[in-house]
Design a protein that fits this description.
By secondary structure, the chain is of the alpha/beta class. The protein has helices at about 10-25, 45-50, 105-115, 175-190, 210-215, 230-235, 260-285; strands spanning about 40, 55-60, 80-85, 85-95, 120-130, 140-150, 195-200, 220-225, 240-250. The termini are far apart.
Length: about 290
């Protein structure tokens, strides 16, 4: 068997999962209709944004064929359908990671399903460590570009042309017009919004001093263990992407201090209202 073939995305599997979601949402008679305009992936500890959604219904990941189950405590494991800032949204409350033992094809399968349910725009959030000494924990950062250091790619394996091209272009992985909207909203609402490059690593351990120094030298501003696989698949499907990171810990090699999940979650929780305000403001302008 070709490497990656057992997990390669197939349009039939995507349709089956999307139909299952429609059935759970009471929309089974509308299999071709759009359930949402915007998909949102909520990262580590980012529950406040989910609470801001006027929820119509939710579906547990366990009830969606092909969906993995989240094993991370801070990830709830359900798909929310509702409205936010007047837009119909689907929000993943909890995502998946390579370090949980899943293939990147499994990690990104939900993005295919969100697109099949009508979402043309993906807003993805995460918590990250920062290698910029002039930024601070609690700041938000709009992702302008990324570096994939996970050592794998979700598009490895046979390509289903119904889902996207064999060799998708990544010149503008993160939509410039969406970032401009985010900058405008941040300025109006007095939210600190940095802009920079996100490096994705496999995890689950945090990086060494030497690794943080390397990341600085190759042009990364922040580092995390998610997002990039989902963005690759979203762009393969033709979706527009806005990525926003919450800087939860400082990773300056010369002044590095031990980090803990408790501290990271606390910083993320403190920044949640600003992320919610930013995303809500962007959606209002779409």
């Amino acid at each position: 068997m070709i490497a990656g073939a057992e997990h390669a995305h197939r349009s039939g599997d995507v349709r089956a999962a999307a139909d299952a979601v429609r059935t759970r949402l009471g929309l089974s008679g509308n299999s071709a209709g759009s359930v949402a305009e915007v998909a949102i992936i909520l990262g580590t500890g980012l529950g406040a944004l989910a609470r801001a959604i006027t929820e119509d219904a939710s579906v547990n990941y366990a009830d969606i064929p092909g969906f993995p189950l989240s094993t991370v405590e801070s990830h709830a494991g359900r798909l929310l359908a509702g409205t936010l800032a007047g837009k119909r949204v689907l929000a993943m409350q909890g995502r998946f990671h390579k370090y949980e033992g899943y293939s990147l094809q499994q990690v990104t399968f939900p993005v295919r399903v969100l697109h099949a349910l009508g979402a043309e725009t993906l807003i993805v959030s995460n918590a990250c460590g920062c290698m910029r000494s002039d930024w601070a924990a609690g700041d938000l950062m709009a992702i302008s570009d990324h570096i994939n250091l996970i050592g794998d790619n979700p598009l490895v394996g046979p390509n289903d042309d119904a889902l996207g091209p064999r060799f998708p272009d990544m010149t503008e992985a993160y939509d410039a017009s969406l970032r401009a909207l985010a900058r405008d909203v941040a300025a109006e609402r007095h939210i600190v919004l940095r802009e920079g490059v996100y490096a994705a690593v496999a995890g689950p351990n945090l990086e060494t001093r030497a690794e943080y120094a390397m990341l600085q030298r190759i042009g990364a501003d922040v580092v995390g263990m998610s997002t990039v696989p989902e963005v690759i698949v979203a762009r393969h499907a033709g979706m527009r992407v806005l990525g926003v990171s919450i800087i939860t810990d400082m990773c300056i090699p010369e002044t590095l201090q031990p980090a803990s999940l408790e501290k990271i979650l606390a910083v993320a929780a403190d920044a949640e209202p600003r992320l919610t305000s930013l995303v809500t403001g962007v959606l209002e302008r779409l």
